[in-house]
Amino acid sequence: MRVFVPRDAAARSVGADEVAERIVTATAGRDVEVVRNGSRGMLWLEPLVEVETTDGRVGYGPVVPEDVDGLIAGGMLDGLGASLGLVEELPWMRRQQRLTFARVGVIDPRSGDDHTEHQGNKGLRAALAMSPADVVEAVVASGLRGRGGAGFPTGIKWRTVLGAESDQKFVCCNADEGDSGTFADRMLIEGDPFTLIEGMTIAAYAVGATEGYVYLRSEYPDAVEALDAAIRTARESGWLGPDILGSGLDFDLHVRVGAGAYICGEETSMLESLEGKRGMVRAKPPIPALEGLFGRPTVVNNVLSLATIPTILANGAAAYAAYGTGRSLGTNVFQLGGNIARGGIVETAFGITLGELVNELGGGTATRRPVRAVQVGGPLGAYLPVEQFGLPMDYEAFAAAGAMVGHGGIVVFDETVDMAAMARFAFAFCAEESCGKCTPCRVGAVRGVETIDRIRRGEDRRQNLVLLDDLCDLMTDGSLCAMGGLTPLPVRSAVRHFGKDFGLYDAPQGT
Amino acid sequence: MTTEVIPPASVPAPGRAVRVRGIAAGLRGLRGALIPILHAVQEELGYVDQTDIAVIADVLNLAVAEVHGVVTFYRDFRREPAGRTTVRICQAEACRSVGAEELAAHVKRRTGAGFGETTYDRRLTVDEVFCLGNCALGPAVQVSGKLHGRVTPARLDALLGEAR
Lengths: 511, 164
Hints:
The complex is a heterodimer. Chain A is 40% helix and 14% strand. By secondary structure, chain A is of the alpha/beta class. In chain A, the strands form four sheets. A five-stranded mixed sheet of chain A has the order 2-1-3-4-5, with helices on one face. The termini of chain A are far apart. Chain B is built from seven helices and five strands. A five-stranded mixed sheet of chain B has the order 2-3-1-4-5, with helices on one face. Chain B is elongated, with a radius of gyration of 19 Å. The mean pLDDT of chain B is 93. Classes of the chains: A alpha/beta, B alpha+beta. Chains A and B meet through α1, β12, β16 and α17 of A and α2, α4 and α5 of B.
């Protein structure tokens, strides 16, 4: 029989390794196999131990090492005792539509056989039976938009690369998930790395690339190890290298580890870093689809975009596009973090409201105080008050409200948060992480910190707020990339919705 | 008359240049080899010494200034040895919402070391990091490369105690 204990870094951070060791020791001599799976994404239940029974997998959690002997004595190995019930039936799981994350937490991420048994490579086989142009058109038809934040249609990008003439093309996966509040890329790579490899292989076939790189941040050592192991297995299985699955396709994949620079999540900085240089932003045009890595046509996609490709090819573009709303089609992997009672991964169709995510799935704050603000879409995303919890998660609806869905990361703050301090942090972060190439970002962020400090001290408050507004305009219009261009978003939303924290006593809350 | 005492520059261990050249030569065939080489040097030798830069530049046929520029651009590359244990405390938004700043203040109070500093006994280096991808279980801390979640000041004291 099999017992599952996650190997995911978040689960390990709260003791999953110790729990697994304890189970191995306690069941020595019995027919028990401890499988280290990915996390189901219910991070408040980690370490979540699952036991395979004839009815399905029964969950126990959060389990601390000291609980293990008692749980086994209580019949855990037969699915009895103090269980959470069937994991698939838990309300958090039932509420979701898992396509990209279908296998995460279910399979053993180190096992190629497990991948195959769970529909692995079905998407790749379907793609190889089509012409490259038809694969590209299927991706266009699915409506998939880049999950890294910008939301550009993936298929359109691929069409450009396919149409470019070159002796060599590349596929680059941007796994520099540096935004606070995002961890879906990490969980996908740790929990189901073969799906990312499969998605990149399909991309290579569709555009005519022979070589791929995953730019993975150094802050994720567990993910680096998981992906390296999966690439080795994929090569041994004939899923990477020459003549993939006997189709004649040659494609190989390499991992490059970043070195602690947030800006390398910006696609052109990432390409510079992959080339072995400082991660300085490039001016566009030329776009990377035409002149990317080493000047060659390059597909640059986020982890989740590429990992969604296999399900689109396996089940058809129409099946994917049936989810979602407006021009935000399919599902998105929302990440609930910060001060939240039930934090973790929610994959569901676009259109679910912010309030449903934070209050119904997330259960409000961990401190049990009222929610005051949520930041959506990372450090460059807007801060929203609870009055806007009716907003549907939809690229256009968020843009209309002066915010952005970004990559779907949601960070919750309770009533104790000082929003002027958070606005200051937005500038301080930009100043620290700016690549330095353009003046509005490099200098503007420093001036922003100074201006907010003056506002917080009450010096010429009104004039300084006008100055702040002017500075935000300049950074938005004059910066070379999204780092400087979007830093005004958290700042302005904080002033607009939480004016009280900036000394604007007459400003009503949440308008 | 007062005399200023200038401490001698740290002298790299003998043979270091040979080893660095070996690492660089072994990886030079990779596309964009510089960053993988710097990671490998730091992994094996603990930090990137100023003298390593010229060696690496020579192997890759790059200007010394270009290698220097890369080493100083990226936060990961150390210019001097770290303490025996390195603790990195996440200071990004999600961890801030659950007390990351208090955790940093606590470590500073207990050890005297702020971000980017090493204690005088060279046991501990303290650093800040922006996001370890553990945003639902913050505050997050990495001790000698191992991730820990929901870290309270007391828990951090225990972790650092174990590390010593």
